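Deliverable D2.4 — example input (structure tokens):
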């Protein structure tokens, strides 16, 4: 299991290939990458803040829960912080399991947690200023299934 909270960009293909190769005994590998998107048409950047140490521990705890609950062979969570431009990867989750249902469910569980509960604070930067991003009702509702 690897947890990385970093400001540096990462290569989706390289990370996915390395994860899959390390989990060669898995019957299923699922990957998901979140990208900075501009829904309003005016986003120039997103700034993501976190508390070093606390953030990594919180993500590690939830990843350990996923490992146990879905009998994962391996898990990967990469989440960036700092200033990110539109179309840059924000985060990546990868899960490996003997069966696809476990890999998919664990990946969704981790993604839902990262979206709503992981200790990150996101600010959207536009030409008219900056605004903190709050979790949506849809994000909160997604957590209820776990």
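Example output (designed residues):
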């Amino acid at each position: 299991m690897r947890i990385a909270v970093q400001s540096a960009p990462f290569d989706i293909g390289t990370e996915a290939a390395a994860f899959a190769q390390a989990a060669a005994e898995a019957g299923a590998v699922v990957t998901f990458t979140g990208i900075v998107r501009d829904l309003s048409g005016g986003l120039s950047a997103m700034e993501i803040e976190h508390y070093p140490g606390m953030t990594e521990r919180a993500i590690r705890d939830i990843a350990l829960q996923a490992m146990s609950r879905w009998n994962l062979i391996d898990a990967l969570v990469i989440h960036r912080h700092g200033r990110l431009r539109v179309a840059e990867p924000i985060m990546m989750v990868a899960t490996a399991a003997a069966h696809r249902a476990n890999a998919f469910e664990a990946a969704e569980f981790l993604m839902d947690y990262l979206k709503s509960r992981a200790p990150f604070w996101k600010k959207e930067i536009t030409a008219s200023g900056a605004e903190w991003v709050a979790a949506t009702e849809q994000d909160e509702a997604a957590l209820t299934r776990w």
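The mean pLDDT is 95.
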